[in-house]
Amino acid sequence: MFGTEPAESGYSEGEDMGQAVTYFQKKDTAFISFEDLADDIRQAKYVVALTGAGVSAESGIPTFRDPSDGLWTKYDPAVYATVWGFWRHPQKIWELLHDFMRSNDPVPNPAHIALTDLQRLGYLKSIVTQNVDNLHQDSGSTNVIEYHGSLLSATCRRCGEKLPLSKSMLQDDNFTKELPPKCACGGIFKPDAILFGEGIPAHAVQNANREVDKCDLLLVVGTSASVSPASSLPYRALRGGAKVVEINLETTGLTNRISDKFVRGPASQLTRTVATLRSDGGTATKTQSSIPTSN
Predict the structure, then answer these.
(1) Residues marked as binding for Zn(2+)?
(2) Whole-angstrom Cα distance, residue 208 to residue 270?
(3) What are the residue boundaries of the structural domains of the chain, listed by start?
(4) What pLDDT is attached to residue 255?
(5) Residue 199: DSSP 8-state
(6) Binding-site residues from annotation
(7) Can the keyword Metal-binding be found in this entry's annotation (predicted)?
(8) Nearest partner of 9 among 172, 155, 198, judged by Cα
(9) Fewer beta carbons within 10 angstroms: which end of the chain, N or C?
(10) 148 is catalytic
(11) In whole numbers, what is the pLDDT of the chain averaged over residues?
(12) For the domain with range 1-61+107-150+199-295, which CATH number is right: 3.30.70.970, 3.40.50.1220, 3.60.150.10, 2.130.10.10?
């Protein structure tokens, strides 16, 4: 949740990351600059981005992988961020959301804005995000597939009724007077962010697979793509003949195996790629993405 990449879900495509790796021999990944990346984007016909925690990190959103972060030293993820913890103490995740939203007011950072700019220039067709913070949409991005759900809605576990949420609602101290929120049917609401141990929504998996199958360039931005089933997407892209380019601070398990190219640096430096594309004075005029509105 937040900028995190949840642990393995109940969904499986019939192969895990380890099995997928056996399909590919090691390869030499080329290291390029953010400016060089503009050439790959310009030459592609259908670009899709797979984003993760690294994109939202510069907005101040903590990750589970940072043991120094105060949020996760205060709240044990095993208690507050697992589906089993939710069923035992359903109020705890709501307390966590309230505390986080009250002490943080995350807004889109240059990485989100750069991806939105790539869409507006006509290059980037869709975003498959493992983040649940809505910051891609806040920055103006469209065709966003929320692979791990969203913090800004909740669902009754009894009848399926939807509860829209907002940052201001979660920040309000009055919100904590009766937790967890209850539906008119008597059921309790659970945030739509996927918790550890939950399955990925089928529509998200289907939409993500469809977009990856259509792409000829997959940008893996701010994520190691090491958690199933999102970990299958770069392999799926490669099997379909697409080029895979990583934008990350450090190399990952994809480097020198799956990724054709690697751009080292924070995702916010994608602004350099956008600037290079704009300096050419043109925008792409290519087929638009068509993600069902139900997503």
Answers:
(1) 156, 159, 183, 185
(2) 22
(3) 1-61+107-150+199-295, 63-105+152-192
(4) 96
(5) P
(6) 156, 159, 183, 185
(7) yes
(8) 198
(9) C
(10) yes
(11) 87
(12) 3.40.50.1220
